[in-house]
Each structure stands twice: as structure tokens, then as C-alpha cells.
Specification:
354 residues; mainly alpha; 2 domains; globular; disordered N terminus
Length: 354
């Protein structure tokens, strides 16, 4: 057990021992065995909070006291399982959630790096073993669990709750989701108080951690497309949350330290704090780059104006920009007779399939 504890993140300077966690499991089965049901159940139970107030007074299952989720316990059990029993992406995904809960953006980045390493270095020795290509959705499921904003772990909301601003007197601190509420007029005074109480150094540290998580997520995304092809999860919800966190941290840094330049690796779409207009970025060098900048602008606008329809319209424009002309026309014109006339007049002989 001493080895296990040594590999757990215990403070903000340590990280998971990726070399050990990615290494084959000792013995004749380098992937280990399928994760035992008892371990899966324990990982699930430890992530639940139990509140007696949620039970009816006459419920025989009503607990006698409140029980917090045991995120540190999940970290310990997850590491032990990956080291000794099973190289399992679902176990690693539970570890990512727990590390984010305990260690914030650094824990998230470390967890994503573990997932990226498992996909890159251990794909052929993961459990469950994939014998039929049609079963590859088993490999996709843990990533979908992390990216689903509406069901299961709702992990993007967990990321949105990671502190951007430190707690202040009579104020519990603020993550992205709380920041959006403040921008809508709820708790604006608390936002200013928390910003005043959070150092530039702490904001920069969090910005760098988010930048690292974004970079690793992009790398992981590419690997999943390579391995899973059409079954690859988009990771779009998680990416959007990180992009918005990066945007808001950039704004906070500008307010705390006007003129402070963001590092090239951590820079995200930013806006001028006074006008709310996008700040000037590098010159557009290609069509693809222009559409990438539009997509980033949409994410920035989602963070600044979460109730505005504009970000959705910009995203739609980006999607339409990827379509060949016949499919673009069909996206706007639904009446088949009109389409036939247009295609005939334009000399388009190959019609897109519905």
C-alpha cells in the first residue's frame, strides 16, 4: 500500500507516476483481468454523497448521518487497480473525475495525460479485450461518460465548478458556472470581491493548468479519431468548458494586471474587458484558419453571453462552411422540386443523399 500512496497526488507539485501506470501489469496478462465487479461497484458507491434529508422519514434505508463522496478513496483504488489488476479506460475515467474534484485543473490535466498515454501506448493491452471491431464502442464509452453534460457524471459541469477565483470573506469562491451567474446579475459584488482576493500568480497558474489540459485533450482527441474512426467521441462538451475557462481567466488576468500578455501556449479567445469586443489576434493566413477563429469566437461569446443566440449562429456558419456547394444548398432548401430546378440550372448532376 505504501507504493500506492506514493503515486497519489498529495500536493500541487506532484503528479501521477505515468511510467508505472502505463507499464504492463506483471505476469502473463499485461492487460490484467476484466475489472472485478466489486471494484466497479466500490468506485461507483464512493462517488455518491448520501444525505438523510433525501430519504422519507419512514424509509428503512435512511442513513443516520450525511456521507460525503470519497474522492481520495477513488484515487487510491483507481491507481491500485490500474497498477495491479486491470488496464481499464473506465477505471482511468473515474480517476480523472476524482482528481479533478480533489486537485482542480492540475488534476484534470494529469488525468487526461493518463488517458492519452493509455490510448497511445497501451491500446492493445486494455481490458475488456476487443475481439470484434463492432465492439469498439466499449472503448468509446468511458470518454462519452466524461463528455456527457446531461447524464451520468455530468463531468463538464464538474470542470465548470473548479475554482477560478479563491474564496473570500462570506464568499465561497467561484468557478466558471458561478461566474456566469454573476455576469447575469447574480452575485456581481461577490465576483469583484473574489477577484480582488485572488492573486495574479494564482490566476496565471490556473490559466497555465487549463492550457495544459486543453493541449492534452486535443492530442487525445486526435488519437481517438485514429483508433476509433467514426466511433470516436467528440469530447466537445469538455473542450467547450475548458475553452470558456481559458477565456474567463484571460479576462481576469487583464483586469488584475492590465497589459499582461498571455503566453502563446495558454492564449485563448479573449475580449477587451471595457468594450466586450474581440481583441486583435494574428492575421488570418488561410480559409481553415479563418473558420477556426470563428469557432473560437463562438466559444468566447458563449462564455460572455450564455443566453445569446449569436454563438449558435456562428457555429452553424462554421458547420456550413465545411459543406460542398450541393450539400450547402440542400441545407437551406427543403422543397425537392426547387432543388431539382436549381441543380439543373447550375449543371449539378451528382445530388447529395438525404
Amino acid at each position: 500500500m505504501r507504493t500506492i500512496f506514493r503515486m497519489i497526488i498529495m500536493d500541487s507539485t506532484n503528479a501521477l507516476d505515468l511510467t508505472a501506470l502505463l507499464a504492463p501489469i506483471a505476469g502473463s496478462q499485461p492487460a490484467g483481468v476484466n475489472t472485478p465487479f466489486g471494484v466497479k461497484d466500490q468506485l461507483e458507491q464512493m462517488r455518491k454523497e448520501v444525505d438523510p434529508a433525501d430519504f422519507a422519514a419512514d424509509d428503512p434505508l435512511k442513513p443516520t448521518e450525511f456521507r460525503k463522496a470519497d474522492w481520495s478513496g477513488i484515487i487510491q483504488l483507481g491507481i491500485k487497480t490500474l497498477l495491479q489488476t486491470s488496464k481499464d479506460l473506465q477505471v482511468a475515467a473515474r480517476l480523472v473525475e476524482a482528481q479533478t474534484k480533489v486537485f482542480g485543473f492540475k488534476g484534470l490535466a494529469d488525468g487526461l495525460e493518463l488517458l492519452d498515454g493509455l490510448v497511445d501506448q497501451a491500446w492493445e493491452r486494455l481490458v475488456p479485450v476487443i475481439d470484434d471491431p463492432s465492439d469498439l464502442d466499449i472503448r468509446s464509452a468511458p470518454f462519452e461518460w466524461l463528455d456527457d453534460a446531461d447524464r451520468g457524471a455530468r463531468f463538464p459541469s464538474t470542470v465548470g465548478g473548479v475554482l477560478l477565483l479563491d474564496p473570500a470573506k462570506d464568499f465561497p469562491g467561484m468557478g466558471l458556472l458561478q461566474w456566469k451567474q454573476g455576469q447575469s446579475g447574480q452575485g456581481a459584488a461577490g465576483l469583484d470581491k473574489a477577484l480582488a482576493g485572488t492573486s495574479v500568480e494564482k490566476l496565471q497558474e490556473r490559466s497555465d493548468q487549463v492550457a495544459r489540459a486543453r493541449e492534452i485533450l486535443g492530442r487525445l482527441d486526435n488519437r481517438l479519431v485514429e483508433k476509433l474512426k467514426d466511433l470516436a467521441p467528440s469530447m466537445g462538451q469538455l473542450r467547450t468548458m475548458l475553452d470558456q475557462c481559458q477565456t474567463i481567466l484571460g479576462q481576469m488576468l487583464s483586469r488584475k494586471s492590465p497589459g499582461r500578455a498571455a503566453s502563446p501556449t495558454s492564449q485563448a479567445p479573449t475580449v477587451d474587458p471595457a468594450s466586450g469586443k474581440p481583441q486583435e489576434q494574428e492575421a488570418v493566413g488561410s480559409r481553415d484558419q479563418a473558420y477556426q477563429m470563428m469557432a473560437k469566437a463562438a466559444e468566447m461569446l458563449s462564455a460572455i453571453e450564455p443566453h445569446s443566440p449569436v454563438p449558435y449562429l456562428v457555429r452553424r456558419a462554421v458547420e456550413l462552411g465545411k459543406l460542398p456547394f450541393p450539400e450547402l444548398i440542400q441545407a437551406f432548401v427543403r422543397e425537392q422540386g426547387t432543388l431539382d430546378v436549381m441543380f439543373r440550372e447550375l449543371g449539378i448532376t451528382s445530388k447529395p443523399q438525404n
